[in-house]
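Final report, Chapter 2: Outcomes

The project's central promise was a pipeline that accepts a single protein chain and returns its three-dimensional structure in a standardized token representation, suitable for archiving and comparison. That pipeline is now operational. To close this chapter, we reproduce one record exactly as it appears in the project archive, with the input sequence first and the structure output second.
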Amino acid sequence: MEATLDPQYIRKPNFIAKLVASKLFWVLAVSFLFAYPVTKSVLRQLPAELPVLGTLPHFMFVAENGENFGTETLRGKVYVANFMFTSCTTACPILLTKIQKVQHRMRGVLDRAAIVSFTVDPETDTPEVLFKKAREMKANPHVWRFVNGPMSDTKKLLVDGFKVPMGDKEIANSVMDVAHSNKLVLVDQQGQIRGYYSIEGDGINHMMIDLGLLINQKKMN
């Protein structure tokens, strides 16, 4: 005799089981999985554009390799400007060590970005002296350049262009010194100043984020 199940022992499908078995459920689920990331991407708020803090005047100096170097050399690149002199024994070594790390972090955008170290003591820091400093700092000549210009032009560019202080060379504690800014200045592809950054704390991290924004905005345009 064939056994039969008592109706009371037959489990009826619950709501979840019916839902999973429904073709409509899977159509809606797959549609949501594809639509959600697209919608999220469209609605995501882009970072605010960096302000324009000034435009640098045209300049033409000499790089550590003896070649002319200036506005036209840098056009189309985002660059980090900094100010130093080779005989400095206080702040400059710290600054240049920080710049070494910036150079390492820029290794993926060497064709679109640069670092420019302007000497504030051009009479001492000839191109030959700057070349030795560049080699000492393991500067990649495709990204990090050391630049020398006439004292009057250098001071005008820094004070009137970059809007950073620069003192006259003077004797301080028997050491030749030149007062100058330790700030890093971010300049865009058109020679416009887009930010000033400290080498302390999160300053360099913030600068690298802004540098990436400038490069990517240019690519999108």
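Archive annotation: The mean pLDDT is 83.
This record, like all others produced under the grant, will remain available to the consortium after the project formally closes.
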